Amino acid sequence: MTEPIDLCDAAGRLNPAAAGWARRPLVRANLAGHPLRKKRWEYWCITDERSLLAAAIADLDYLAFAGVSVIDLATGERRDRVKVAPGGIEMPQTVRGGLVELGGVRLEPGRLLVSMGPIGAEIALAPPAGDSLQVVVPWTPDRFQLTCEQIGVRASGWIRCGERTTVLGTCAWAALDCGRGVWPVRASWNWAAAAGGDLAFNLGARWSDTENAFFERGAIRHLDERVRFGDRRIDGPSVALEFTPILTRNLGWPGVAGLRWSAGRFSGRIGGREIARLFGWSERFDVLW
Description:
Strands 2, 4, 5, 6, 7, 8, 9, 10, 11, 12, 13, 14 and 15 form a 13-stranded antiparallel beta sheet that branches. A hairpin with a 3-residue loop joins strand 20 and strand 21. This protein is an all-beta fold and 289 residues long. The radius of gyration is 18 Å and the shape is globular. It contains no helices and 24 strands.
């Protein structure tokens, strides 16, 4: 087994050997120093294209929070819950490397458990069936980010929303966004992900041009190019996607953060393949943190 590569050196600065992208998790996020600037999170989104559950635990270096949302994709009905805790929490240094728990959200290497008011869930999360996308972005020696994306992970289990419990269908899949880094005070990004059958993709912009990839039967093709997000399009040298939203959410905290998130279907071309009505989501996020 290959030994993990440390993200940081002994002084807490970026280890140059960690920078770049890889097809499997190789880097250990041994963050240190940089008070108030370290950011760590685990975000899972699970869907069977009837309903969608999003669950996140994050440590922002001065507070931690857990958040969950359940959305009925047919009716648009949704429930949300957030738990905020001062200070920070311990999070694993490696991808899916251990237990993370806060405020009714419990993430284990192969399982997600939620119990927050009217929202409950028990989801089994399989290991990736093929490649992942790991990216280390080196803005400066003191500002950098490790991200690992696992798209199209097999998922099974149930989701409870109020009095209604839904058993996930056989087409259910999940996406993991695992982040560890030292960020500037202001940050902005676009992100899109989708999966279906033997195809999946992950695309990002504004914060980096290196987290763009297309997966076919679990094998990754890294797209070393810049993509541009419009309201209903994503374009790049090998990307031309039309996005048809099913529902859109606009969330904002004046002067602090703004999120526009949409679930829907993608059609067009990516990585030399034609895709039609692939289900996923697209978001735009701007934050002062």
